[in-house]
What does this fold into?
Amino acid sequence: MLYLVCYDISDDKVRNRVSERLLDFGARIQESVFECLLDTQQYERMIAALGSIRLDELDKLRIYRICANCVEAVKIYGPGEVIRDPESYVV
It folds into this structure.
């Protein structure tokens, strides 16, 4: 499943911790926006990792689940593409 994670965090230290954690789960597509292609276990690990970071009462962090039909409807202007499952895996 594809998840879109976005945040608005004022404190540099906290913002860096969030972005470092998210790099373990997905790709940065904008400064404060990540696309994460995750199975259920990975999603739960991401939620736990983000939940361990203490946010200020004014900080915002949102996670949107993007269904397969919605992924196909994504419009991109400028460079980049939506993260997708590879056609094949090398083991």
About this structure: The mean pLDDT is 90. The domain at 2-70 is CATH 3.30.70.240 (Alpha-Beta Plaits). The two ends are 21 Å apart (CA to CA).
